[in-house]
Every structure is written in structure tokens, then in C-alpha cells.
Amino acid sequence: MNNKAVILGCNYYIGLSTIRCLGEHGIHTVAVDYSEKQAYGALSKYTSERLISPHYKDETSAFIAFLKDYAKKQSAKPVLIPCHDSYVEVIDEYLDELRELYLIPQTEQGLYTKAMNKEVLHRMAQEHGVNVPETVRVGEEDFAQKIDAMIKFPCVVKPTDSPSFVAKFRRKLFKVHNHAELNEALEKAKKAGLEVIVQRIIPGFDDHMYTFDAYLNQDSKVTHWLTCQKFRQYPINFGASVYTGQRHVPELFEIGAPFLEAIGWKGFAEIEFKKDAETGQYYLIEINVRITNLNNLLYEVGLNFPYITYRELTGSPVEPKAITKNTGRVFWYFYEDMLAVRDYIKTKQLTPGQVFRSLFKPKANAIWRWSDPKPGLAYASIIGGKVMSKLIRK
What we know:
Number of strands: 16
Shape: globular
Structural class: alpha/beta
CATH class of the largest domain: Alpha Beta
Number of helices: 15
Strand content: 15-25%
CATH topology of the largest domain: D-amino Acid Aminotransferase, Chain A, domain 1
Largest sheet: 8 strands, mixed
Number of domains: 3
Distance between the termini: 54 Å
CATH architecture of the largest domain: 2-Layer Sandwich
Oligomer: single chain
């Protein structure tokens, strides 16, 4: 096929797994990042071409011009695959322009952004009868009373725009235990110019977190899907997957598929749910609108979402498929899982024995692959440098 695959963001393992998923099928992969520094994903043997672009946020106009100039030189429209939320935001802003030159699943400008905005997403979910955690908006009438009556402490202060919040605070949210901590968190967000909401914490340990991973075709119909269960995340309790297993939960399809189809979604999406430990109900937490952390697990159990995307957009869709058997395989991000294990044990949420027994599952590693070792070795060097810097500072 003449259509190249342009992968945005190669300084993280999501970009790496996307390059591998496409490259092993002989697809010409173009690894794009704004810096060579720490872009270990581009070192994969499956990388066909490597480009350094202007920064997507600091030089947005130049970045868009860079993408357009590159596409104009190609014999066929490339498939554009962002591997970070910040790239998705920029693509959504310039979607109509970029679609003239690239193959992109989503056709409705603004839908990516709506799904990434926690407040808008929760409103959309409620309109379609999907459970979401109880929420109070800053500035609402009787704000403090609603916190006490409906939300209760501890609760979470969450951003409506996650990428900006994470870039500023290096965390996904603030957990607060009283009004003083709540006011302090709201003040921090206000000073940073970031909009936040306050939500009830759905009861249940981290293994009550689940995902519904799906691909929807250009008719907004789910063609490929599976579900997973988180076991550990980092930062603990409110972080990203570091140890997550494939597990078939048909109820998540029954909730997630109609919702995504109803809002006109196209392409890949991952809905994160939490199961209430007291009621057994599933609550929609967020949607990841681009290829996710779990991509290598999804690939190893039988669904290659980057390739499914590429094939449909280039006119030769693959057969529909769902993973409905439990494989027992887990995604493992070794480095951050070790940090998570330390914190779970320190807070007595897990025992060393529980952690040890969990490790004997077949793995889908985030980074390491014996047949493609360069990215893993480069990543080990990066982590080694960080550890040495910490030791020297001490």
C-alpha cells in the first residue's frame, strides 16, 4: 500500500507499540516527535522514517504547516495516528484542514474535544442514560452544602481539560479530605487558569476499574471490541494502568457500545469504567480518544487496533471481531508498576504476598520485546540516568 502511517508522539510506549503494530505488516511508519531526546519509540526496527516537527503546542501553526507540507509530498494520503491527548487536541482544532490531506477516522470537528472534556462527557453520558459519578461544579449555588450532602469527603477535584492539568501538576486530579483541602485545591486550579469539577469517589479498590476498548467504523458501528480489568495503576488509586488484564465483561459492551454509537463516534475509543463495590453498578469515568497504554495487550490477545484503523481508512477493512474468552494475559509497565507496588504496600492496600502471587500471569510488556530490543535498551538508559541524578542530589 502507498499510504504511509504518520505516528505522532514517540517518546512514550504508546507510540512504540503503534509503530510495531503497523510495521510488522509492512506498512511504512513515520515516527514524528518534536525532539530526538527520549523519543525511544522511534528506535524500533519497524520505524521506516523519522521526522522532527515543531512543537505541537508552542508552535502550533508551524506544526500544522509541517504536517500539511509532508502530506502534500506523498503519492497517497497518509493515515494520521496521534498517541497523546495533546496531539489529539491540535488535530481536532484543525480537523477539516488536515482531513484534506490525511486519513483520519473522526469526521465531526469538536467531538474529540467533547469526549476529552470531563464535564461535557459526563453531560453526554447522562443524556444517554449512562451512569457517571455525582458531580458539583465550582460556583454552583449552595456549593458547600452540596459537597456535604451529595459528594461527601474524601472526594476528587478533577480537571475538565486533562492534558493541561497533567502538564501543570503532574497528576490527574486532587484528592481532598475536608473543606480546607478542597478550597486549597480549587485555589491552585484557579491560579493555573484551569477549570475543575468536584466528584464523588466511587467505592472500590483499583481492581474495580475496567475498560471497554472498541473500534467503530465510518458508519459509527462497533466492529471490534474487548474488555479489560485493572489490577494496579500509578499513581495508585487515580493513575494510569501499569498492571491490567484482559477479562471479558459483557455488561461493559452493553453500556459502552450503544453510547459510542449514539454520539456518532468513529475510530478507536477506550471507555474507563469503575464498578461500585457497594451496588455493583458501572460508572463511566472517562474516554481515552487515542491509542492507549494497553495497546500491546490488546494486540497480543488478538486485536491490533492501529492496523484495524489503517485497513479501514485505506479501503480494505478487516473482519469484525470481539475477544469473548478470558486469556489471563496482562499488560505490564515494569518500572511504574514497581513504584505502584511500593506505594500499595506502604499504604497497606496490598501485601507483598498478594503482589508476588499476581506476577505469574503471561505478560504483554509495555516496552521490552526481544525481537526489537533497541527501544527497551534506550528506555533503560533514560531511567538509569534519572536514578543516578536522584542519587547524586541526595
